Amino acid sequence: MLHSISWLESIPDLWLQIGIVVLVLGVVVLLAETIYRRVSANSELVRKVVHISTGNIILLAWWLKLPTWVGIWASVIAGAIALLSFYIPFLPGINSVGRKSLGTFFYAISIGILIAWFWPTQHYQYAAIGILVMTWGDGLAALIGQKFGQHTYEVWGIKKSWEGSLTMALTSYFVSSLILFGVQGNIWQTWLIPVAIALVATGLEAFSKLGIDNLTVPLGSAAIAFYLSQHLT
């Protein structure tokens, strides 16, 4: 009985937390659609606004300690919207990549998988590493590669640049080391493990056919971070 009362008393706070997350996501989508219509319908900037802004929601979810089921259902709903928009572009801003890509769909699904994987055991940092490596690494790599990429290579018919890949590696290292430093402090593993994360993330990001890197990079980065942290610390 006491357990039931405690659960009932927690409902208002839970819905407030969910409301905050929904509000932030709504602002992101609105911003993306505004940029899409007023700046450029083909601008990479639009996709990266969604990409980077949405990814940082994982920090908000971590801070609020949202229940696992909330994260999973949010991922399913976001994935369904992204997939529907891919075939019926009622939200063209979230899929404005200039090529046929399911990246936004894979991105949403990867968040749900990582939350289902790490939230129940309270290993929030690994979910955050997976998502934020993709969020900032891939986001900045695409922008830097398009603007400054002079030395190109091709994987699965997708053109990449060494400048973009270097950006991916450096950003992945910085993001993952920052998270690990915040969780486990200034120990040698904090600075070594991100080297492996950066190499794995950069390698996976090169294979981006249909936007599959939005799934493989988060899962691969989180997996290597978790594995090495468990065996080296």
Relative helix content: over 70%
**Major beta sheet summary:** 2 strands, antiparallel
How large a portion of the residues is in β-strands, by DSSP E? under 5%
Count the helices. How many? 9
Order of helices and strands: HHHHHHEEHHH
Structural class: mainly alpha
The dominant shape is globular
Distance between the termini: 42 Å
- The overall strand count is 2
Strand order of the largest sheet: 1-2
Mean pLDDT across all amino acids = 80
Number of structural domains = 1
Task: Return residue spans where pLDDT drops below 50 for at least 5 consecutive residues.
Answer: none
Task: Please compute the radius of gyration using only Cα atoms.
Answer: 18 Å
Describe the structure.
- The chain is built from nine helices and two strands; from the N terminus they run ααααααββααα.
- The protein has one domain.
- The protein is mainly alpha-helical.
- Strands 1-2 form a two-stranded antiparallel sheet.
- The mean pLDDT is 80.
- It is globular, with a radius of gyration of 18 Å.
Name some characteristics of this structure:
233 residues; 77% helix; globular; 3% strand; mainly alpha; 2 strands
